[in-house]
Design goal:
Chain B: InterPro entries: Fuse-rel_SoxYZ, Ig-like_fold, Ig_E-set, SoxY, SoxY_sf, SoxZ_dom. The complex is a heterodimer of chains A (309) and B (251). By secondary structure, chain A is α/β, with parallel strands linked by helices. Chain A has one domain: Metallo-beta-lactamase, Chain A (4-Layer Sandwich). Chain A is 37% helix and 20% strand. Chain A is built from eight helices and 13 strands. In chain A, strands 1-2-3-4-5-6-7 form a seven-stranded mixed sheet. Chain A has a five-stranded mixed sheet with strand order 8-9-10-11-12, with helices on one face. In chain A, helix 6 packs across helix 8. By secondary structure, chain B is mainly β. Chain B is 7% helix and 42% strand. In chain B, strands 1, 2, 4, 6, 7, 9, 10, 13, 14, 16 and 17 form an eleven-stranded mixed sheet that branches. A six-stranded antiparallel sheet of chain B has the order 3-5-8-15-12-11, with no helix packed on it. In chain B, a hairpin with a 4-residue loop joins strand 11 and strand 12. Chain B is globular. The chains are: A alpha/beta (309), B mainly beta (251). At the A-B interface, helix 7, helix 8 and strand 13 of A face strand 5, strand 11, strand 12 and strand 17 of B. Strand 13 of chain A pairs antiparallel with strand 11 of chain B, so a sheet runs across the interface.
């Protein structure tokens, strides 16, 4: 009888313990610069959408938060974790782009200015609710209470002084049409947003073109960076993420270009063999299926001519 | 002599043609098979048949433009008709294709899906048996009721019926790929009545029909279609929509 009581007590403890808890551990990667590293997996009910890298910079006067994560709950846990590192006030949240895994934690920072490129805000107005709905479908109850909260400030490219620290802001477009990259000049940490994926297949909904993306990578690589925080994947202190991005984008472009020239169907292209050198790039098959849907129509049209009479 | 039920069962077992491809076991989970078997195939004899290959991505990245590809070339020379449908779509039927002798029983097209659904293609062979190819697609949904992309573009009417196309040489055929500018309105978007391409024929230069294709508004806007023809016969594609507009292309 005593055993049964103990088991029952344990069971009810398990039920009452919150199973949907993000384990966000801030990791210091440079003086005043902190990273929350997510996994390189896809969205799932198991990970609550914590597949993304977010971070924050502690300046003399307060904290600059970079991206707010995939859900309200994530944003709240992130804010608590920041408060354990510093008691300085939050000065600003900066969003790298409008994708749901980067912005749906905004509600946790509703009392702080939330800044983004004007293009990011426009895309969020246009697509935010649909993307949030899809996140509920993908990760379920982790999303409870999450709604789109729009940015309150516009960012422009150039040098921005915040709390005695200089941030170089770049307004690029290769991933979504409005992509912010942030270089912390003092530490040399480059928050590349989703312009850089590393060891995780890049995603292409909304890319203006792969050529645009490649040009953005050139700009980023020429900055005086010391470390790269990709939007997804591990932190790097060498140029390996740039090399992998170029290689992967070039491969993707080649697959679709030659496919269009040979009259390949989408269903044939999505079965293309993934080169051995991308074996370590997570989700490459899944993202190839998505990218063919996003981009192949443009390649097809370029390979065809008007034939109506 | 009198047969008891056991003998009947034994006889029935021998009577069923026992090959390794066809079976009565549905390869996908479906609650609608019996309904469509009755409604579209008239309850006629059928087998689920792996030799009819129906390809689709495992999930619909864009539910308004889902690529499907059908290959029944295992039955080349015997195919009378090919019917395709998406079981859980509000407008399930996709096409009714009669390939003729100079056109392979293969076809690729893009469709709309409203939700995750089984997809089917039923291939009628000359012996009167339907061979059914099946697959399943996952989808966030909404492809059938989403607002038109074509209609959001100013001046789309001026481009109506324009055809982009090209002929490609494959190992065993010439592939004719076309994309036709048309909104393919399915009547499910508020205030916009049905307006879609419903007939197509592939003809040779003398006007003989090589293949006939009936289209339904489950087909995506700006339909993208591939047909594989035997040899390099010059062809004309004729199209008509339900408002009577006719379009032609040469390939």
């Amino acid at each position: 009888m005593r055993w049964i009581l103990i088991l029952a007590a344990l069971a009810s403890a398990c039920v009452h313990a919150n199973p949907l808890a993000y384990d966000l551990q801030p990791r210091q990667i440079a003086d005043g610069v902190w990273l929350f590293e997510g996994s390189t997996d896809n969205f799932s009910q198991a990970n609550g959408g914590n597949i993304v890298n977010t971070g924050f910079i502690v300046t003399d006067k307060g904290v600059v938060v970079i991206d707010s994560g995939p859900s309200r709950r994530y944003g709240e846990v992130m804010r608590q974790a920041i408060a354990r590192v510093t008691d300085k006030p939050l000065l600003k949240v900066m969003l790298t782009h409008h994708h749901p895994d980067h912005v749906l934690g905004n509600q946790a920072f509703s009392d702080v200015p939330i800044a983004a490129l004007p293009g990011t805000t426009a895309l969020l107005v246009e697509q935010g609710d649909t993307m949030a709905e899809n996140m509920y479908r993908l990760v379920g109850d982790w999303m409870r209470g999450t709604e789109v909260l729009l940015p309150t400030e516009s960012l422009e490219p150039g040098m921005l002084e915040v709390g005695g620290r200089t941030l170089q802001l770049l307004a690029l477009s290769g991933h979504t049409g409005a992509d912010l990259a942030i270089l912390d000049v003092q530490s040399g940490v480059l928050f590349a947003g989703d312009l850089v994926f590393y060891q995780r297949a890049l995603t292409t909904p909304g890319t203006p073109s792969l050529a645009t993306w490649l040009a953005d990578l050139d700009q980023l690589q020429h900055l005086p960076w010391k470390q790269i925080v990709p939007g997804h994947g591990p932190l790097a202190s060498d140029a390996a993420p740039f090399a992998q991005m170029r290689d992967y984008l070039g491969w993707l472009d080649g697959v679709m270009r030659s496919g269009a020239e040979q009259g390949a169907e989408m269903n044939e292209l999505i079965r293309t063999a993934i080169p051995e050198r991308f074996a370590g790039v997570n989700l490459s098959r899944y993202e190839l299926i998505r990218s063919v849907s996003h981009l192949y129509p443009r390649y097809e049209q370029a390979a065809m001519q008007r034939v109506d009479r | 002599m009198e047969l008891d039920w056991r003998s009947f069962l034994l006889l029935a077992l021998f009577a069923v043609p026992w090959d390794s491809w066809g079976s009565q076991r549905d390869p996908v989970t479906s609650v609608m098979w019996d309904y469509y078997h009755e409604r579209l195939l008239g309850g006629e004899a059928f087998v689920f048949d792996e030799r009819v290959k129906l390809s689709a991505p495992p999930f619909a990245e864009d539910a308004r433009q889902v690529p499907i590809q059908i290959d029944a070339s295992a039955f080349d020379g015997q195919v009378v008709r090919m019917l395709a449908w998406a079981e859980l779509n509000p407008i399930p039927q996709i096409f009714d294709f009669q390939p003729g002798e100079q056109v392979l029983p293969r076809l690729a097209i893009r469709i709309r899906v409203e939700q995750a659904t089984p997809l089917r293609v039923a291939v009628l062979t000359r012996d009167g048996l339907w061979h059914v190819g099946s697959t399943q697609i996952d989808a966030a949904g909404g492809g059938c009721t989403a607002p038109s992309v074509v209609r959001a573009q100013a001046g789309w009417e001026e481009h109506l019926g324009e055809v982009l196309g090209k002929r490609f040489v494959l190992a065993d055929a010439n592939r004719l790929r076309v994309q036709v500018a048309h909104p393919m309105d399915n009547g499910l978007v508020g205030g916009i009545p049905e307006f879609f391409l419903n007939q197509a024929q592939l003809r040779d230069r003398s006007g003989n029909t090589l293949a006939s294709l009936e289209l339904f508004p489950a087909v995506s806007e700006n339909p993208t279609i591939s047909l594989d023809v035997k040899g390099n016969v010059e062809t004309e594609l004729w199209l008509r929509d339900n408002n009577g507009n006719e379009f032609k292309a040469e390939l």
